[in-house]
Structure to design on (117 residues):
C-alpha cells in the first residue's frame, strides 16, 4: 500500500525498469552458470540475485526509494567495472551491447523514479 492507503501499481516507467532489470539479470545468470567454479561466475550469480531482489522489492512496494537509491550505484558500478576490466575495449558482442544498453536504461529509469518519489 502507498502512504495514502491505496494499493501500489507500478507506473509504465517502473515497468520499463523491471524489463531492463530482467534483461540484465538474464545475461548475468547465463554468464554465471557458464562459470560456476570461478570468481567471475559467482559474482555474476550474485548480481543476478541483486537484480531479482530489486525487482521483487519494487513490485511488492518494499522501500522503493531505497531500492532506487541502491540500484543506481549497483548498476553503475557494473558498467564501470565492465569498462575497467575490458581495456583496451575489445570488439563488443551483441550480448554485451544488449546488457550495457539495458543497464543504462535501468539507471535512467531509477533516476526518474527517484525524482518522482
Amino acid at each position: 500500500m502507498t502512504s495514502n492507503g491505496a494499493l501500489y501499481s507500478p507506473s509504465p516507467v517502473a515497468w520499463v525498469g523491471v524489463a531492463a532489470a530482467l534483461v540484465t539479470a538474464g545475461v548475468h545468470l547465463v554468464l554465471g552458470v557458464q562459470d560456476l567454479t570461478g570468481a567471475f561466475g559467482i559474482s555474476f550469480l550474485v548480481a543476478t540475485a541483486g537484480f531479482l531482489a530489486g525487482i521483487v522489492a519494487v513490485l511488492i512496494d518494499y522501500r522503493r526509494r531505497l531500492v532506487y537509491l541502491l540500484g543506481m550505484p549497483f548498476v553503475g558500478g557494473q558498467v564501470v567495472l565492465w569498462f575497467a576490466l575490458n581495456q583496451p575495449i575489445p570488439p563488443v558482442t551483441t550480448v554485451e551491447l544488449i546488457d550495457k544498453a539495458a543497464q543504462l536504461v535501468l539507471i535512467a529509469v531509477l533516476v526518474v523514479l527517484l525524482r518522482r518519489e
User: Anything to note?
Assistant: The CA atoms of residues 12 and 116 lie 13 Å apart.
